[in-house]
Amino acid sequence: MANPYETLGVAANASQDDIRKAYRKAAKDTHPDLNPGRPEAEKRFKEINAAYDIIGDADKRKRYDAGEIDETGAERQPERHFYREYAEAEPNRRYSYSRRGAASGGPGNGGAEFDYDIFSDLFGRRGDGTTFRMPPQDVRYALEIDFLDAVHGTHKVVSMPDGKTLDITIPAGIKDGQVLRLKGQGLPGSDGKPGDAYVEISVRPHPDFKREGHDILSTLPVSLAEALNGASVRVDTVDGPVDVKVPKGAKEGTKLRLRGKGVSHGKEGGRGDQFVEIHIVPPEGADDALAQFMAEWEKAHPQNPRRKGAA
Amino acid sequence: MIRESELITHFTYLERQVLLTWIEDGVVAPQRDDEGYLFDAIDEARVALACDLHYRMGLEHASLPVILSLIDQLHDARHHLRALTQAVAEQPDGVRQQISERVAR
Predict the structure, then answer these.
(1) Are the Cβ atoms of B29 and A94 closer than 8 angstroms?
(2) Domain residue limits, chain B
(3) Which ipTM did the prediction report?
(4) CATH 3.40.50.620 for the B2-104 domain, yes or no
(5) Which end of chain B, N or C, is less packed with Cβ atoms under 10 Å?
(6) Which residues, numbered 62 to 101 in chain A, qualify as contacts with chain B under a Cβ-Cβ cut-off of 8 Å?
(7) What is the widest separation between alpha-carbon atoms in chain A?
(8) pLDDT tens-digit map of A5-15
(9) Domains of chain A
(10) How many CB atoms lie within 10 A of CB B91?
(11) Least confident of A90-104, B20-34, B57-71
(12) Does residue A139 contact residue A188 with C-beta atoms inside 8 Å?
């Protein structure tokens, strides 16, 4: 069994109040009776309950922290039958909302009837009743992921709009619009064989990086002095920042190549490159002295950048 | 079937007065005979749920009948939905196709 602090997602020095809050939030999302459509909720609910039994109680928590009891030190939870087991199993059960209201007029019940009209409309126009074979159904989903997750690949457990939970491994280098096929994750046919799930990936744009094939493009603003004299500057890559040498006399639009800082080629192995385009930012707060100096300097070095062939 | 006193021993925090309030509010609706209330497995599971909601998750007594009523309505809806899904599954291919296209819209 896991560390109870980790199970509840709280720090080891969290207050009792924080632990209680974390438990209540987790219980709301995993209590089987509050999530009747999610069979997997029960296992998680039992884990968080066992964790809360230890660290939710200030005395037991002290003993756990002191090493006097371990994760299993809590009282064993007896085999429990959740309400949903009965409610799901028994259509004419005593607690059915509409039935109870009509039969007992019990408190809290308006005796509201379920809207059966919806069904009679449907069944009124029944087919010929012949049996047929129902083929497995493929289902399609859409999933949006972060730019960097697309570059590096990631693992995602996501709840789809229909309530199904999918465990999706996103390979490094996946492209916007690419479709992943999850074999056997669709709906089963009458023979019990499931169809496939197709997940279309859309990649959120990144503020600094663009992608071209397997290369990453970005812009590097440098000052005029850095461009003239060369400089070592910090550049963001998809792997984090690296130091890059701006060559002396770098021109606007010069592209520096950072080898292997691009996107994975997948099965063939290797990665693309990052291209950093230099953008020279004019001096901020240029004053008369600079203007005068430039005027003097240009007199000595006449230049017409609009002339054909000018650099 | 068990009696009130035995039921209470199954729960760490449950007090008799609270149980009686829940019965009065319709949170749990046990059967009764001359000697008092009789709880079966469903009733006990409902009491366990009410205990979770109140003692562990901090819900007020007044909100329990509301929550339980919503849960019961959810189960009713799930029963009807299952019946409907079953009925749809029994239709010819073309009909099912039309229905799933309409639902996906």
Answers:
(1) yes
(2) 2-104
(3) 0.80
(4) no
(5) C
(6) 80-88, 90-91, 93-98, 100
(7) 104
(8) 999 999 999 99
(9) 4-80 (1.10.287.110), 139-203 (2.60.260.20), 210-300 (2.60.260.20)
(10) 20
(11) A90-104
(12) no
